[in-house]
Amino acid sequence: MVHASRIFRATTIALRAVFFASSLLCAVQAFALSEIKPDETAPPEVTDPTPLPDLTPDRSGEVPMPNPATPPQNATPPESAPPADGEPAETEPSEDETADPARPHVDPDAVVPEIIYDLSRLPGPTRRMRELILEATKSGDIEKLRPLLGMGDGATTLSFGGVEGDLIEFLKQQSGDGEGHEILAILEEVLEAGFVHVDAGKPEELYVWPYFFAVPIEKLTPPQRVELFRIVTAGDYEDMKNYGAYIFYRVGITPEGRWMFFVAGD
């Protein structure tokens, strides 16, 4: 029993020694860990990533393309392609095609156009407009011309330079008496003369009074010169001979009955 008691005590002492040693080891480790200081070194600086290589192709040797919305400076327009077989070539409009229809239609080398007195040969609308104008002239009231003159782009041409303001007031200013009576008399005499049919079948087709509009002055016969002196003076006639054409007042009416012009001059 004594032997067993000693063994038990020895064992107990050994176990206590082991426990003490273990506790001491843990304390030493804890103390060591408490002495470790955090790393005060700043984190490494983050640098920009390495840029990717430029894969854009080198175009330094190429000719830059022009902006389609802006033509290049000093560019020479391309030559017109020749017309295809069977197609007519484009041409610039001739002087005759761009001429003012109110200017004298006189060609000294051309055949004198037919001089017409037969009013039945006029288209209905043309004849009616002529009658309305004559009714206004015979009334002595120039205001009666107003509805016949039209307005805007469709107004009757009274001057090659255009008219600013009221058309009736312009006619009064052109009249020697200031009231428009002289102009009415001239307009009546012009429309009582013979007339010519010009540019038949064309968009600019017209009936024009008096017929001197399309007849060279030097080709007038004696009876025709008598008719001319019903409208102009001898002094006017001399001026027209120098010019080579009739340049006094004339009236143009379309086949549709539009009063195109009442002008004088060249």
Automatic annotation (TrEMBL):
Residues 65-81 have a biased composition (Pro residues). Residues 87-99 have a biased composition (Acidic residues). Residues 39-110 are annotated as: Disordered. It comes from the Bacteria. Keywords: Signal. Residues 1-32 form the signal peptide. This is Alanine and proline-rich secreted protein Apa.
